[in-house]
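Board notes (copied after class):
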Amino acid sequence: GFTCAAANEMEAERFQELAKVMKKKKVKLGEDQLSCLVKMVLLHGTPKDLDSYPEELLLFLSPSDYAVTGSCMQYFANIGKANLDVLQRESSQRKRLLLEALACLKIPGTEVNEENAEILGRLVCDLDGEYIRSSGGNLLRQLSQCASFRADQEEAIRSVISSGNTTFGPPEAWSTFTLNELSGLIPIFDHSILQKIPKNAWTLWLKNSARDSPLSREQLAAIVEELLPTRHKRAAGCPPDKKITEEILEDDFMPLYYPPDLLRACLKNVSLENHLSQILTYPFTVEQLAVLKDYLNEMYPDGYPESLFPKLGPLFSLFTPEDISKFQITSADGLADLLNNQPNPAQASAIIKRYVDLGHALNATALNAIGTKYLCLLNATELNTIDPSSLKLVSLNPSACSQSTKNILYAKAKRAFSDQPFPAYYELIKPYLEGAPGVDLKDLSKKNVNMNINTFVKLRRDSLMSLTPSEVKGLLGIYLPDLKEWQKKSPIWEWVQTQKQSELNKLGIGLTGGTQEGYINIMTPKFPTPSAASLGPVAMMLHLLPPLLISFLMMSILS
């Protein structure tokens, strides 16, 4: 992928061409790449053919930027097709886009008609519950495309569907066709909606469409639970017509035929060895899965062998750290297979601990398996065993970890990438920069790196505070103007207050709040007590004060 550090060397026109090619090739871009692309595309004013650029680029512009290309309605119709998730769900940019869209479409209250819902497209996913309730069923088709919902949206969708006042009619009258139309909403249906939908519609839908639906195995299992008889007699044995045959093991809907007790009775003397990974993709309920786990425990009393790890899938949620402490993890691949099962943090810690306790190294394969997701679970002892060179072969981001974890990993990453030239070195070290000491940032400021503001504000607090305005200018490059928007927010506000105003003026972006010449700014720091080393600047300032003022200060301190 292209990077902003490399962007400087390309002229704006070549950049515009590159952006148009990206649209044709449907290249997926992240937030950082897009915000960089916008800056370069708009370098010499707004192009008149914004429709030739990736739709996601428009997320960083406004209807007024688009005016040279077309109307605000056309702008929002394009935004509706863009991948909104490039922007954080609750970000101010996404909120602004929605408000501007509602103003453009002249939607006065909270009722949105079908035509406007069509134009809003994916922006519908950001409308709150009030809009969903007022608009009746008009938004359901668009909402079915959303990746996730907030609690107020879920409640509103359930209330609209339960009311039955939509073009789809009440759930009691739904068919397989309705379930296909609204399949994206099925995961948020509660028991009262699920049980109203005719069972034959469910059974037909499960058999014909479930495989192509976006529903997960767990979500399908919730439907199976609704369809299984609620009261089942304890099976004395396995009835002859329920014998588990090869044909049954090949049937995706095996869970529909075996309530938990019947499954337990009929699994006796059946070998699942060759079918395990296949049947665990079937929508078994949690109770049915517990029966399968018991079956495996009986088969492997000394702990599961590594050959079983890739097949465990949905059983994983049932394992306790104690179960895991018996697993026979013999290699980094085995560790990877276990962590592929999306364990929860307690399970993942137990897996990593078991792996390390068995004497295995945290090499590149192991680190790739641990990934950003479980990286923060590593303790200092485990982190220190990492060989820096293995960081060259993995892609990690310690952003969510503790500061001490960030510091350890930064030092290792710096050693790992030290042989790389710029701008490659910067792109590789960037995910680890939140652990960088001030001296390294000062060095980077001379390298024309174009650090974006989101990276800058997450730098280590003491490191950021140690930078001078000219060093900040060197780090931010084309992103320097973004500093103004952060002026009143932490940590930029604390940094501004400790700088001379005359130095801030040299940045030319209108930052205010620095200290005036001849004044001393005695601030209470909001961060840890300074060490003796960082008291140096304070001592310097005191040295410059007239002796009288010093004696006055000393008296007030001692009194």
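Comment from the instructor: The longest helix spans residues 403-417. DSSP finds 35 helices and no strands in the chain.
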